Predict the structure of Coenzyme A biosynthesis bifunctional protein CoaBC.
Amino acid sequence: ALPRDLEGVRVLISAGGTREALDPVRYLGNHSSGKQGYALARVAAQRGAQVTLVSGAVSQPGDPAGVEVVHIDSARELAEEMTARSAQADVVIMAAAVADFRPVGVAGTKIKKGAHGPAPIELTTNPDILAGLVAARSEGRIPADTVIVGFAAETGDDDGGVLDHGRAKLRRKGCDLLVVNAVGDGRAFGTEDNTGWVLAAGENGEAGTETGLPYGSKTLMASRILDQVAAALPEH
Ligand code: C5P
């Protein structure tokens, strides 16, 4: 049986990819099966948490059981849901693959094939939702003891390279925990198995910790990630 160590803990999770509309039929997006975020939602609920999953585009058979699910399309919709809901969360996990850019304008009708070839697409930058949540917490709009977790898919020539990128990202984003996955060479994306580390920010100038994740299913990864989340929670 799973531990009920997250009984009553309110967990807000984002998962899947965002879709940035170009016109009524086309979008820009990124690959994301949603597997890791859905596994986190399912396992957290099984461990007693009260889970809300804000889901972009995924290839999952259906919504996880025992979880409140909100479906969104774009990064800006995701930002709105996460920002509004994080004030009532004890834990916020940003597992979504957010598109960094979106088209400047959305055409009202389907873009035609131009006589002179394709027209360029002008892009603008989407908000960094994770960084925005950390800023909202330091400004008091999210409770100070809310645990904020980010994800990073990093490529590197070796584990050292991946971890170095992960540590730098943890500092840059200012979240409490960062789940680092090694990607490239067919790893992580859409696969059953996954591996990586959970990096924890050090408190009061202390060095942070890093915990290796076992090689295994995304359900097993979810359990180990949630162990670190449970350890980071204030007494409950
Ligand atoms: O900077 P990078 O995209 O590698 O950071 C990944 C982390 O930041 C993930 O937790 C992702 O959900 C989050 N993110 C975000 N808003 C963005 C881009 C990424 O919240 N615009």
